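Running co-folding for thiamine diphosphate.
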Amino acid sequence: MSVPLLAATEAPALLALTKADILHDYRLGWESRYASLAGRREVFMGKAKFGIFGDGKELPQLAMAHAFRAGDHRAGYYRDQTFMVAIGELTWEQYFAQLYATPDAEADPATAGRCMNGHFATRQLDEDGKFKNQAQAKNSSADISPTAGQMPRLVGLAYASKLYRQNPELHQYSDFSVNGNEVAFGTIGNASTSEGMFFEALNAAGVLQIPMLVSVWDDHYGISVPAEYQTTKQNISALLAGFQREGEGQDGFEIYVVRGWDYPTLLDTYQKAAAICRAAHVPTLVHVTEVTQPQGHSTSGSHERYKSKERLSWEEQHDCLTKMREWLLSEGIAGADELAQIEKTAAATIKQARTAAWAAYFNPIQEERDEAVKVLNQLVADNGAENQLAELVKSFQTNVTPIRADIVRTLRKALRQVRGNRPTAGRRAAQRLLEECLANSADHYNSYLFSQSDEAVGNIEEVPAEYAADAPLVDGREVLQACFTANFERDPRVLAFGEDVGYIGDVNQAFAGLQAKFGDLRVTDTGIRECTIIGQGIGTALRGLRSIAEIQYLDYLLYGLQPLSDDLACLQYRTKGGQKAPLIVRTRGHRLEGVWHSGSPIQMILGSIRGMHLCVPRNMTQAAGFYNTLLRSDEPALVIECLNGYRLKEKLPTNVGEFTLPLGRPEVLRQGEDITIVTYGSMCRIVLDAAAQLAEVGISVEVIDVQTLLPFDTDQLIADSLRKTGRVVFADEDVPGGATAYMMQQVLDNQNAYQLLDSAPRCLSAQAHRPPYGSDGDYFSKPNVEDVFDVVYDMMREVDPQQFAAIY
Ligand SMILES: Cc1ncc(C[n+]2csc(CCOP(=O)(O)OP(=O)(O)O)c2C)c(N)n1
Ligand SMILES: [Mg+2]
């Protein structure tokens, strides 16, 4: 075993626990252990598909729970069942409901059966999708599976307390914070500290000086791979010793090391760590060593394969519950009989919870199955017993533990069998039941990708832009500057942060002067750390703030894409409407030059952020309209501004901070008769130039700016255009088969537009490689005016070779 380099600071016993409190912990510890043991058995019996449990990590979590107060937040991982039960935000029945994938938010409030077991979350929204009071609640943000993925969000959760404390304008939001007196508790496994985002998050927290308390559950392994392969010197706290602050009032961390089986020291350590963190906003690390994992990593295999006999026997001796029992006996707190009785009661509690959860999971399915059997037998009676249908129904009836898919599959196959037969009561009943099952499953499995509240983007009132007769022509960046200023004045919860956003007001000056006006807590520079900039946004948005997180250039979004994709985009979905984080991510792209400055990986984004909106405004006025909409809505979005548009002149609306632009509505930029070009962003200018040149040779082009790619043309306006022109080109700067293919799918498939076409649809995209640096690199890599001209001309020449003679 590694010897800790830093001893836990001598901590006074800040927590006076009674015997009953201590034995309550002991009972909870054993309940948790029995839940882990039972959970593994359920998987092996086939009642659940996969299991990962918190055995061996019970004691540190009980100690952490004693330090966790109303108003605090958690961002953790799959081992934290003991903690969640100890703070009263999980019952064992709910725990098993999740293991069985019960698709019901009553049964599994964390994920409504959508996540594997061990994904914890509290329901933070009411029935209408509005935030509930967080200051009086014990809050857990919704877990995700990617190791260390909780860390970026944790930074944001802790950062919110700093803002709520230090910005007096935010003191009115007492539902979210009481003077920033909250701690954001993070938990992470030892091996996951190898991830880059762990180090990035720690550094960010040290720079920001925020109340973030990170616990590392160190069981020496990450699945089968031991610490030798994971951590320099095999000791994360020793490694991070440089983060230790020099003394009170100095920047840095407080670092504690404590053994995972040492109950009294764990209690003291957490009391002390949380107190400093809460009072002085000092980020804190608690390295919990000598932790065990009695059942091995998960149900996917046994740890005997990779742990030595010596290690296994050491783990047995250092099992935290065994050690707690020894301590209780040696301290004379309880006798052996009393403890044995507690363990027995704990086992019974778990058995009961498991049985009740299984019944709650299976009874509704059983009812649906019985109903299906009834209807299917009626169908057999209607259609004769000697056929494939009867065989199908017979085999369905022998399945005594069906899942919902079995029911629906059988109904669909049965209806297939009787197609063309006379309509009977049985057939109608089967049809009705199928429809009912499909409607239920849509709610169970497909709902809440987006907000369903009255603040969803589709419900934001549309306010047109207004212009004075003598509206000034200003630089595009000034339109944004005016828009942001108005929104910062309107709503004190609005804030913006990112690289170079604060002092200089972003690299293109849309925030110029705003820091001086609104203070550096609202317009803020960050380090170069895209991943935790996004996390900072997610955590603050979860806590009621209206954050604009800036990624300096679109190409660098990749660094922040993981939290966007795995955390933010699926937040509403994976909690079935239990949590939301209406973060706006602002970036700039399109028409850039250079291998890492090309600004066009749109398909990468489309494929990974479903659950967010994607706005691709062609100019800064459109961008302002989107910001105005989004800052009034409760949904997350990514806005890509055109890098080449900040210095172009635009008319300044009189209501620049008020007008809103609906998402999902394309705009026809130029009317035409012969062909429709569908595009977005900086390509709009290029396509309009080409359209003007095509007009000179007698080709009339309709140009449509889709404006948002997610959602895409919700009213199917593009099909209207194709009804007129019968021809379409999809054009953008992405790779071939990128977002042009996406737009084509949306139009041909969703809008059923193939039958409106008289010519084959075409896609015009950039080259497959990234554009080289320089104007020639751009010209020969991204679609230019001549390319657009030639594609359109070629299509028209195919229609009428006489009128449109060959050019080349
Ligand atoms: C990004 C990512 N890579 C790999 C995995 C697969 N995986 C799940 S848990 C795990 C080991 C984590 O070990 P540790 O952090 O020490 O936590 P422990 O399970 O030991 O408590 C791995 C590799 C994952 N979930 N996410
Ligand atoms: Mg581990």
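Result summary
The pocket of thiamine diphosphate (ligand 1) is lined by residues 79, 145-147, 189-192, 217, 219, 221-223, 297 (CB under 6 Å).
Residues 211 and 685 are 48 Å apart (CA to CA).
Job closed.
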